[in-house]
Amino acid sequence: MNDVELFLRHLVEAWEERDVESACKLFSSCKVYHETPFSGNMVIAPGGIRELWKEIETQSDIKVGVKVAVQSDNRAAISYEAAYSVGEERVSSAGVWIVKMEAGMCVEFRQCFMLAPDGAP
To answer: Is the pLDDT reported for residue 43 higher than 90?
Structure first.
């Protein structure tokens, strides 16, 4: 298993298990983290990444699927789909993660995603 695959396995586990601490550790070496193409770099905001990932504590019945679309050396583009519940509402999202790895750690993470419209599968 290469660095990207190992990172993804741990990221999916952290999300599905609602483990904010484990998710944050995966980004502890991150120099660039963008939640959306238009968001600022969350690494420079005190507690920025943790604040984003705290959202998973409100989720339940989480299912995440990932597929490495393209990989070259230490960079990869990953497509993902996720479904989870927040209270009575079921939420579905899909998107792309662009990651850069160095020495087994994620040093750059960029995300672009869409939430499914209400009632979409």
So the answer is: no
Task: Tell me the C-alpha to C-alpha distance, in Å, between residue 102 and each of 7, 87, 105.
Answer: 11, 38, 5
Number of structural domains found in the chain = 1
pLDDT at 118 over 70: no
The answer to the question of residue 40 being in a domain is: yes
- Pair of tokens at residue 33: 């983290």
What CATH number did the domain enclosing 63 receive? 3.10.450.50
75-116: pLDDT as tens digits: 999 999 999 999 999 999 999 999 999 999 999 999 999 998
In a domain, 121, yes or no: no
| pTM beyond 0.85, yes or no | yes
Report the C-alpha gap between 82 and 86 in whole angstroms: 13
